[in-house]
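Researcher: Structure for this, please.
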Amino acid sequence: MSERHQPNGGTVQGSSHDDVRRHNLSVVLRLVHRSGAASRSQLTKVTGLNRSTIAALVAELVELGLVMEREPNATNQVGRPSPIVSVSEQVVALAVNPEIDAVTIGIVGLDGQVHRRVRYPTDRSPSVVEAVNIAAAVIDGMRGELETTFKVVGIGVAVPGLVRAHDGLVRHAPHLGWVDEPLAEMLEAATGYPVLAANDASLGAMAERFFGAGKGITDLIYLNGGASGIGGGMIVGGVPAGGVAGYAGEFGHTRVSDSDRVDSAGIRGTLEAEVTRRELLEVLGLAGADADELEQALLASTDPLVRAEVDRQIDHLAVALAGAINILNPQLVVLGGFLAALLAVDPDRLRSAVAALSLGSAFGSVRLSAAELGSNLLMIGAAELAFEGLLDDPAGLTAENAGSAD
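Model: Predicted structure, token format:
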């Protein structure tokens, strides 16, 4: 039985030369996908594979249409420079994020670039049928561009609720009113593309880890604040912590006060009950806004009522963050959605409030950061879900199935 080397220095047993080759294709594609363009010599060093093997693997990935090679910029180094390998700009995934006030659809490249993001507002929470119809209609409107310009791998859906991992069944999205809805199956039937779905905050944690504030971090907590409330994701020891059924990270249901306010689960005094996007919009006099627009409005406001509401929400957020830091001892806490806006308005107040409730040793090693990916975060996270099968087995992508929804 043969051995396959991994970038972390370990080995994986393979039953055949073809298994080894497919594994190594995955290793190389993941490296250039998540770490950016690299020279062949850099890939040789990181993987531990020899130069001829890397050359053959890169050539196959080029043939599959997944990566490109170019000559490096001119340097003064002696000898022939090593070609630069980067992911193909044509390979994309579609991303969908249903919310209580909109369905957002995006085209995201294998390099993490969001080529297009369309936010389709709704005047009420869409049913699963309405969300699927909206997404399918927007995707149909993009069909000409998708079929002539890109190779579409599939669709990833970021859902504000509990999603069963193996089949994309939405077990419970309380703010949307969805219970046991076969979202992935319905969207696949409507579009013809393969569909995967997962919790939005878990996908946000993954996106920030690979493409945002969490690059190089092995232990982080991500909290997302959206129209549907607050969720979260955790990376522990470099591995996503999903729990036994994939439902871990529901920080929104952490109790932070003795008030009678209830959250979507009917629990009193929780983070989700006390810290809400709706109340920020109300005090600003806005009917709606995405995360970036909300942040700008809060920063621009001089209304003392706005500031009082921001301070109230920051103090409750600090209670939940301190508890998470004391329990999980992360290197980084990333705040996304409207929670990032609260951090932007008064970072000193939030840090001081968290420090006052945290163990000194734990707080001393943690950093609070806004999500770097902004309004594109869930698009990138959902696309990453769709890319996962390709990254696991690049050789499984053929010229016939790479860009067709048939």
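Researcher: Any notable elements?
Model: Confidence is low (pLDDT under 50) at residues 1-14, 402-406. The domain at 18-72+81-87 is CATH 1.10.10.10 (Arc Repressor Mutant, subunit A).
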